Amino acid sequence: MKKSSFTLSKDFKIAKIDNRLFGSFIEHLGRAVYGGIYEPGHPEADEKGFRKDVIKLIKDIDVPVVRYPGGNFVSGYNWEDGVGPVELRPSRLELAWSTTEPNTFGTNEFMDWCKAAGTSPMMAVNLGTRGPDEARNLLEYCNHEKGSYYSDLRRKHGYEKPHNIKLWCLGNEMDGPWQMGHKTAEEYGRVANETANIMKMMDPSVELVLCGSSNSFMKTFGDWEATALDHSYERVDYVSLHQYFNCNDGDTKNFLARSCEIENYIKTVICICDYIKGKRHSRHTVNLSLDEWNVWYHSNGTKFDRWSFAPHILEDVYNFADALVVGLTLITMLRHSDRVKIACLAQLVNVIAPIMTENGGNAWAQTIYYPYMHASKYGRGYALNGILDTTKHDTKDFTDVTDIDCAAVWNDEAEELTVFAVNRDFEQDNILSVNLKDFEGYAPVEHIVMAGFDLQAVNTSTNGRVKPVSHALNGVYEAESEIKLAPLSWNVIRYKKA
Ligand code: AHR
């Protein structure tokens, strides 16, 4: 048995967590939209075709923001194809994923769906095959009240009130050679800056996300961020990070250390933002938007018919090991919530997603659903910089990996404190001593645990066995309480002020 301690004080505040840290992503890709959130004719569909069973699962997570419509898809998308009378909308060849896009779901349907799902939009503009002009027209369509061509077009389409979309992505992964309209950092920095200028001329209240690198292994990583930011620094509010994890080599010990990779990535991008801030003598701070992250590898190599409609692609079936990696990543994000303000688990339904559906059938929670739900439910408030004392180990790619990892969130309004913890050890319990410095009266009330599963165990449409259990704790205040973290476990320890 191993021992660790985690010391917490109200004074050790990292930041007030931006709720958008628990966002997600819906792309026109595979069955994310069609057969995922939207399936007219399904027994659970409402009058607009939105699946209520899926909305219920989303509401249980409480997803504050959803990025849309892509992803790689956005770089070839004509937003005009997806508005107006449905019977007049064109079908298009969708080149990013080699499918056919019918455009029966578009911007207005997405906005209606956001309302139904209790979330808000993070809209991306196409800076691949299109540019600043298309971006300003879409912004006018969405945010201008009336009296101009595109705002009146929206009204003609039945949406009298503007959508007022506040958060916008300036393209997607423009550093990636696979991206339609791929650019060099210079080219992208210039067009992103000009687009940002025009968009803020039209609506100064919007917040803009600059594309950073597609992942930290890109050859241009670092230089890309510095160059693109140098062109656009004053006009953008966030720079994006994307990171997906795999366990292709079957080395789970190493896989469980992958959150160190994202930690280094975050730290490096913070340094680059602040370097450009210093270089430009700016008073403005650019923060981070980790707007695509997840485990992604199980579905690689899936075959499908080119130009088919809504095929089963990127439908990773997640196991228990993946849930631990997702939990560890959430812990890492909470620790950096002073600069990581937005994050989107990619994606939300069917496509590398916590929620799966069958066409015409069930919707269910994958293993990764639970840590995401716990973080979103209990991770609102102040992230605390707890002092973690624990043993360490090395893996194939990482050294000094902590045997357990922890984050703490204090919700001062609800007078609740939550500790999130993962025990990475394959065999041994870890007794975590939580030391509360100045949380008088805060008593441990619940310990939620996911543990004891085979690392490969998955959930299916009819068997949701990989799920958390809740244990009531004694509810008595103690300055130091000991919690047993089982080997390979995700833990949520909840304290409440009596
Ligand atoms: O989320 C799937 C894809 O991953 C997105 O379309 C793209 O942005 C990224 O490469």
Protein architecture, described:
Helix 3 packs across helix 4 (149-156). The mean pLDDT is 98. The strands form six sheets. An eight-stranded parallel beta barrel has the order 3-4-7-8-9-10-11-12, surrounded by six helices. The chain is globular, with a radius of gyration of 23 Å. It is built from ten helices and 25 strands. The protein folds into two domains: 2-10 and 384-497, Golgi alpha-mannosidase II (Immunoglobulin-like), CATH 2.60.40; 18-378, Alpha-Beta Barrel (TIM Barrel), CATH 3.20.20.80. A hairpin with a 4-residue loop joins strand 5 (92-94) and strand 6. By secondary structure, the chain is of the alpha/beta class. 24% of the residues lie in helices and 26% in strands. The protein has helices at 52-61, 107-117, 132-143, 149-156, 185-202, 223-232, 252-255, 259-279, 320-335, 369-378, and strands at 2-8, 13-16, 23-25, 65-68, 92-94, 99-101, 120-125, 167-170, 207-210, 238-245, 287-295, 340-346, 355-357, 363-365, 382-384, 387-389, 392-393, 401-402, 404-411, 416-423, 430-436, 442-450, 469-472, 480-485, 489-497. Alpha-L-arabinofuranose (AHR) is lined by residues 27, 70-72, 172-173, 214, 292, 346-347.
Which CATH-level-2 architecture of the largest domain?
Alpha-Beta Barrel
* Sequence stretches where pLDDT stays below 50 over 5 or more residues: none
Number of helices: 10
Shape: globular
Helix/strand/pairing class, anyone? alpha/beta
Distance between the termini: 32 Å
Total number of strands: 25
Level-1 CATH class name of the largest domain:
Alpha Beta
What is the averaged pLDDT score? Answer: 98
Spatially, the strands of the biggest sheet line up as 3-4-7-8-9-10-11-12
- Estimated helix fraction: 10-25%
Q: Give the tally of structural domains.
A: 2
- % residues in beta strands: 25-35%
Distinct small-molecule ligands in the complex:
alpha-L-arabinofuranose
Largest sheet: 8 strands, parallel, barrel
Using only CA atoms, what is the Rg? Answer: 23 Å
CATH topology name of the largest domain: TIM Barrel
CATH homology superfamily name of the largest domain: Glycosidases
